[in-house]
Amino acid sequence: xxxxxxxxxxxxxxxxxxxxxxxxxxxxxxxxxxxxxxxxxxxxxxxxxxxxxxxxxxxxxxxxxxxxxxxxxxxxxxxxxxxxxxxxxxxxxxxxxxxxxxxxxxxxxxxxxxxxxxxxxxxxxxxxxxxxxxxxxxxxxxxxxxxxxxxxxxxxxxxxxxxxxxxxxxxxxxxxxxxxxxxxxxxxxxxxxxxxxxxxxxxxxxxxxxxxxxxxxxxxxxxxxxxxxxxxxxxxxxxxxxxxxxxxxxxxxxxxxxxxxxxxxxxxxxxxxxxxxxxxxxxxxxxxxxxxxxxxxxxxxxxxxxxxxxxxxxxxxxxxxxxxxxxxxxxxxxxxxxxxxxxxxxxxxxxxxxxxxxxxxxxxxxxxxxxxxxxxxxxxxxxxxxxxxxxxxxxxxxxxxxxxxxxxxxxxxxxxxxxxxxxxxxxxxxxxxxxxxxxxxxxxxxxxxxxxxxx
Length: 455
Prior knowledge:
By secondary structure, the protein is of the alpha+beta class. It folds into 2 domains: 2-269, no CATH class; 279-371 and 406-452, no CATH class. The chain contains 15 helices and 12 strands. The strands form 2 sheets. Strands 1, 4, 5, 6, 7, 8, 9, 10, 11 and 12 form a 10-stranded mixed beta sheet that branches. Helix 9 runs antiparallel to helix 11 and helix 12 runs antiparallel to helix 13. It is elongated, with a radius of gyration of 35 Å. The mean pLDDT is 79.
């Protein structure tokens, strides 16, 4: 679980907006006015890699970013902007921007740039699944992954070129939306969404998961260079093997004096691991409680059974004593008898435990780890929010509602040999104590006294 979900922390950039040495105005071709671009210390691949190499305890790192892109050479899974264009093109309405000015919004979608696509949250939590081709790696240059639904809609296959345009909307809030430049990538993998996303006419194309594109960092950097900005990493994670060591490792990173810490800070990100193991902790607690109850009940029951059995053999004890057999020999005989019976019962119980433990563990886990249902809003609910003027609420209602990390669908619960040995030794001690406690008083009496107790 620790290796799968990992425990990580990230380095984050906090630029000083009032420091003129960190900013400059730039003229971008195709724009009417200049933009204010950040030119100060940045988070790049070299920085992250150096930190990982110089810090003991970091086992891996991941880098990446995200941006909006425009795929106007292709057809997206239709959403709000497609519906809006078709509706307002045939209906008279007073709009700030006409349908033709906002038309290209139907081609705008989300693009993730990452070194290792296996680390992308959507693959981590099971929302995405690779169905054809391969994942992206750090060695890739201008490679990409698209959804199988998008590929089929546009007759694309592995090895084809995907032309990604950088929309002007990324650097100015002005229509019409135009392309500022193009980056060409090769499709190396197809993924699919593992659940039915709730999509209606109010869902933006950018929020429809099957429209998303995943590229390597080289493609992401090329897109940012279109308007002259440095490639800022929105994903800069460092992974540690043991969650308990994360604070210590973060402290070691803080000691690196070549980093300008006035512009950077570290942020712990163990939420993925904690969310994934939360059901396991509950299962562990339930099983510990069950084991505790079983242990106490077993000890009490075993003591009562042995005590009752020894009381029924008082006459036998008296006869053995009367023929000259010592108390030590009598105790040894009774002890061996109960130990042999207990060992046979333990072996039978052990075989049953090995078979039953995984089933019981999975049943407990299944009752605890119930999959969260995706919240789906009806069109009437969304239209009611529109009528109330709650635009932010409308945007949230139209988005994909499945978020967070999905724990494993099933777990393997097994009986460890060490646990079985500990239980066996405990049983031997309990039997020894019970036999000694039950026969102790009887052996202190004379044989005549023992036999007279039965009259």
